[in-house]
């Protein structure tokens, strides 16, 4: 959202954002964000609690009404899933403004438990009312749009606009970077993401066990951190798997530059797109992905050209892909360059938001 707002501002689109605070707090903060000489009003409503991943923010409708009155938007751009968006259905002032719905992911995937499925029975009617009222719906990839059950009824007003990355976020990182030369010449594989089940890191770690001469750098925190570290210890991989925890943009940039390739081993459609793939492509890195049906990952990566696609949840397939890259470093570098070319043409934020501009023009 931040990158899109800045890129849209360069084309004369003024925007403000209403979001939740990241951490629990009763207070709402109203701030001004400045980027590229543009100023943006950001209202972060107090986050009182989380229930089944749902933010509980009683002040949200009040601040929504306030922004509609003061900012006077021509379009309301809604990002789903987010139950707070349902407040728009109750506000006449919001219903009078055209809506564009950005569909980032389905709430329910095949691996969800019964609790989430029960919750979705309550959530779905409001979700469908939002989609019915929307003037346009934005999906981030063709495979996700085609496989999304909630969007089936609304395919006629749905559009595919990929996510994009503002490379200005990485400015300054390269100027202070001096890549060390590994003494052992191991293939340096980077994996980035929340340490949770759908990321498939267990299969990746097991693949490292089958792939001598490969080192894995794992960036992120999550509920499976202890379990994954125990797996590394049980396989005696402490010298070939490094856990880095959460990193900021500058630190992640250094990891991107230091790696030889990036692996996104997610195993379900919960990985709806894979923003980290775009970041790796910007840095000219080949990518290895799990080709999950209905996910945007396989839409981003061109098999054999910008990276390698493998069967999801398949340790042997992941190991074979890493061995292939390790054995042919020149081909791996060519894949990285092809990925950089594709990024520059499609996923750099100033190109990616062109589709949004067209939708705005046809909606307003």
Describe this structure in words.
This protein has two domains: 178 residues, Rossmann fold, CATH 3.40.50; 179 residues, Rossmann fold (3-Layer(aba) Sandwich), CATH 3.40.50.2000. The chain has 14 helices and 15 strands. Helix 3 links the parallel strand 6 and strand 7. Helix 6 crosses helix 11. The longest helix is centred in the middle third of the chain and has 20 residues. It is globular, with a radius of gyration of 21 Å. About 2% of the residues have low confidence.
How does CATH name the architecture of the largest domain?
A: 3-Layer(aba) Sandwich
Q: Helicity level, as a percent range?
A: 25-40%
Give the SSE order as H and E letters. HEEEEEHEHEHEHEEHEHEHEHEHEHHHH
How far from one another are the termini? Answer: 20 Å
CATH topology of the largest domain: Rossmann fold
Low-confidence stretches: 175-181
Taken together, the total number of domains comes to: 2
Number of helices: 14
**Overall average residue pLDDT:** 93
Largest sheet, if any?
A: 6 strands, parallel
Task: From the alpha carbons, calculate the radius of gyration and give it in angstroms.
Answer: 21 Å
| CATH class categorisation of the largest domain | Alpha Beta
Shape: globular
